[in-house]
Amino acid sequence: MYRQKSFENDRATLYLVPTPIGNLSEMTSRALEVLHQVHYIAAEDTRNTVKLCNHFEISAKLISHHEHNLNVAIPKILSLLEEGEDVAIVSDAGYPAISDPGYEIVKEAIAKHYNVVPISGCNAALDALVVSGIAPQPFLFYGFLAHDNKTKKKELEKLKHQMVTIIFYEAPHRITKTLNLMLEILGDRQMSLCRELTKRHEEIIRGRISEILEIAGDLKGEMVLVVEGAKEETVEEVFETTIKEHVQQFVDEGMSAKDAIKEVAKIRKINKNKVYEEYHKG
């Protein structure tokens, strides 16, 4: 166990500083104070962060810190902390470590007992959650689903029984395929699609998955999807075996296939025809 008293020691500090997701006026005074105070800022993309620094007249030196250079960036940041330098971590927009780089260096800094301090600020997931019109708690932040459909299907299958609101991030070129899979696996649930949050063309679309799917192909910009959780009456018990394997277990114990199908349908609380089809599938 290690107790961090953030402002009662002389250890160097790693600050997690959120940046605006679209509207620069949402930069907080404390975030600006920290960025003016530190000598080094570790940025997901220095080309984007330099614009922010120029706008607010921040003179800290920028260090590249993204998912493809962590083996170089993390030792560099740790060496600065070892020298007593405070370092701020920023992503291109929003909160570091939330579907952005940050978690790995946070873990390393904690292990070496440096202070790791969060600065309050912008987060697209929470913005979308509170305006969705869907129950805001409990909720699960999932972030981006896998890009390939096969893996994405498996992820959604694991999530379909969750009785909590689920938040996803998605890119415009994948939104139609993602919503089609959600409709197929999760069913036609209520959802909210938020795009261009805090920007001039901000849009919040609320409705059923099938309704939003009809216009999804025309939507642009990074998106946050807020999807209602499974209803209690539709949640099925999760079994370790497939339907076919379950039926076969009863058959192996001497039960007829017909009776085994009936028994499995009763245990799983599903339609007998569905069990029959699964069992006789090739």
UniProtKB/TrEMBL annotation:
Entry function: Catalyzes the 2'-O-methylation of the ribose of cytidine 1402 (C1402) in 16S rRNA.
Reaction catalysed by this enzyme: cytidine(1402) in 16S rRNA + S-adenosyl-L-methionine = 2'-O-methylcytidine(1402) in 16S rRNA + S-adenosyl-L-homocysteine + H(+)
Principal location listed in the UniProt entry: cytoplasm
Protein keywords: Cytoplasm, Methyltransferase, rRNA processing, S-adenosyl-L-methionine, Transferase
GO MF entries: rRNA (cytosine-2'-O-)-methyltransferase activity
Residue intervals of the Tetrapyrrole methylase domain: 13-212
Superkingdom per UniProt: Bacteria
Record localization: Cytoplasm
Protein family membership: Belongs to the methyltransferase superfamily. RsmI family.
PROSITE patterns given in the database record: RSMI (PS01296)
Source organism of the structure: Intestinibaculum porci
GO cellular component terms given for this protein: cytoplasm
EC number of this enzyme: 2.1.1.198
Protein name as catalogued: Ribosomal RNA small subunit methyltransferase I
